[in-house]
Design a protein that fits this description.
Strand content: 15-25%
Low-confidence stretches: 5-35
Number of domains: 2
Mean pLDDT: 90
Shape: globular
Strand order of the largest sheet: 2-3-4-8-9-10-11-12
CATH topology of the largest domain: TIM Barrel
Distance between the termini: 30 Å
CATH superfamily of the largest domain: Glycosidases
Number of helices: 13
Oligomer: single chain
């Protein structure tokens, strides 16, 4: 495996080169008498990133409440990971830094209140949630991407006191009160360095597959008691910049602070572990009126996020614009936005559509079509993304919307509500859950019926791993694969493809498994006519398949 950080090749160019190579190979085979691929060669494996966000802030997804016992925390994680695999997804985007805190063992920032109920308190008995989640995710063949908030220092949902080791106490000059939030000032060099060092600490110590940053750079605008919009209080850091000879206006300076963070984060991660992918999920509207038929929120002006620039510069490995609007909405139509983002990708980085199954509710659609979605809206968006030549997958926000239970936490103010009101709320929640369950059933049985590998990050590495060594034991009504990795690069997954009377079947198996009963994950009994097995590396490259009779 080699890891040059390529920036010149584009996906269309790579695909054209592969097409020419295939045509050339076919010509040589016919002219030179080479053997054509065997008739029973397996079909190509589906390539699609299928992710889910798992939010810790406000205990939205995990853990279900602050201070949940450790055994229950672990059980919830296992349940979520099992569900992720059951649905046919292949990536788990795990929130580990909601607000300058940590849901993992850190010497830089305090334990999160959302985990233990008190900021700075470690789990008792002790365990490391990120280490546990990584082990369990990889055992299921899932990628795990660690999700960080780069600048938020305190969320309004926090209830307890800030720990003595929190940045607002150790470096109060770097933290600003902004509306109902505490926010680290992106204009301070020390803030950028700290945020990057937090990420690098995780990259160095944990076997994560990706670093994931969401859309919270400068904060979304807050309003004061008088209803007027508040400006972010960074006069001191801006004055320091001007005194050092800076010439940018304040808005451009703010954007340059975020641009620099993104660029330095990417370069820093690649210096440490080039195979760890770096992704960003900005809001799906870069600029209001940035192109015909584009409206919505102006991220460029409002939160100083020039996300189009990061995509065009190639300062990331994947990009997940949050396209949280329906297909039929005119100003921010899902397919129109997806197409626009695909056109802003000259470096050929992976583009995944951010989806919001949480909008599948019972409400009648309002004027802006923000609620009351039918389950088929999400299914339709998946098929639109799947059919678009510039799209490589999608990510669901969030885990609770795709679970068979646990989509709703405790009812706020339940102790003040009448029994009739509580019954009404619970009945509505149950009805919404039935509708969401119909979505997940369709995903499992139709949309995700075929398993998928993540797309290969060929700009980082395009060398396939060595083919595995394998044997097939046919015993009675079953066939067992015995698989060993060859020397060289170690695999992340096995792909097992088997032919049955009803056709080809594909199974994606964690590389830690050395024996596999063919068809066992599909509920198949009996023995296939032929089996092919291949290895897949950490960046999605697939080896030459090995045939077993």
């Amino acid at each position: 495996m080699r890891f040059p950080i390529r920036t010149c090749g584009t996906r269309p160019a790579r695909r054209a080169a592969l097409l020419l190579l295939c045509v050339f190979a076919a010509g040589c085979a016919s002219a030179g008498g080479r053997t054509a691929p065997p008739a029973d060669a397996p079909p190509p494996v589906v390539r699609e990133f299928r992710g889910v966000w798992v939010a810790a802030v406000s205990n939205m997804d995990w853990p279900s409440r602050p201070g949940l016992p450790v055994d229950s925390q672990k059980a919830e994680l296992v349940h979520m990971l099992d569900r992720t695999r059951e649905l046919g997804l292949n990536a788990f985007i795990f929130h580990i830094r909601p607000a300058a805190d940590a849901l993992y063992a850190s010497e830089i920032e305090p334990w999160s209140e959302y985990l233990t109920g008190q900021q700075g308190r470690a789990p008792e008995p002790f365990y490391d949630p990120l280490e546990f989640a990584l082990r369990e995710a990889h055992a299921r063949g899932l990628e795990l991407h660690a999700w960080f908030n780069p600048y938020r220092a305190r969320h309004p949902s926090a209830r307890g006191p800030l720990a003595p080791t929190h940045i607002s106490n150790t470096n109060p000059e770097l933290v600003k009160e902004y509306g109902s939030y505490l926010w680290m000032d992106p204009g301070e060099e020390a803030v950028r360095e700290r945020s990057i060092n937090v990420v690098l600490d995780v990259v160095n110590r944990y076997d994560i597959d990706g670093v994931h940053i969401d859309d919270y750079f400068y904060p979304y605008r807050e309003r004061g008691p008088d209803g007027k919009e508040l400006d972010f209080p960074d006069s001191a850091s801006y004055a320091k910049y001007l005194a050092a000879g800076g010439t940018l206006g304040r808005a451009d300076w703010r954007r340059s602070n975020v641009d620099r963070y993104v660029e330095e984060l990417y370069e820093s991660v690649k210096r440490r572990k080039p195979w760890v992918k770096v992704g960003i999920s900005p809001i799906g509207t870069w600029r209001r009126g940035g192109a015909p038929q584009l409206g919505g929120f102006d991220a460029f002006e409002q939160i100083y996020a020039d996300s189009r620039k990061w995509l065009m510069d190639g300062n990331l490995d994947y990009f997940v614009p949050q396209l949280y609007w329906p297909i039929a909405r005119s100003d921010v139509s899902f397919p129109v936005l997806l197409n626009w983002w695909a056109q802003q990708n000259p470096k050929g980085r992976d583009l995944y559509a951010g989806l919001i199954p949480g909008n599948v509710t019972l409400d009648a659609p309002g004027p802006q079509n923000r609620s009351g979605w039918h389950p088929d809206e999400i299914v339709g968006q998946i098929y639109i993304a799947r059919g678009h030549p510039g799209s490589d997958g999608h990510v669901h926000f969030r885990r609770g919307s795709l679970m068979p239970d646990g989509a709703y936490g405790p009812i706020p103010g339940a102790d003040t509500l009448s029994a009739a009101r509580l019954d009404s709320i619970r009945a509505r929640q149950a009805a919404v859950q039935v509708r969401r369950d119909s979505l997940t059933r369709k995903l499992m049985t139709e949309t995700y019926a075929q398993p998928a590998l993540v797309p290969p990050a060929t700009w980082l590495d395009d060398d396939p791993p060595p083919a595995p060594r394998a044997t097939l034991r046919r015993q009675g009504e079953g066939s067992t694969l015995v698989i060993e990795a060859s020397r060289g690069e170690q695999p992340f997954l096995w792909v097992v493809q088997s032919r049955w009377p009803e056709g080809w079947r594909t199974e994606i198996v964690p590389a830690a498994r050395r024996e596999w009963v063919v068809g066992s994950s599909l509920g198949l009994s009996g023995s296939p006519t032929v089996v092919w097995v291949s290895a897949v590396d950490r960046l999605g490259n697939q080896s030459r398949p090995v045939r077993l009779d």
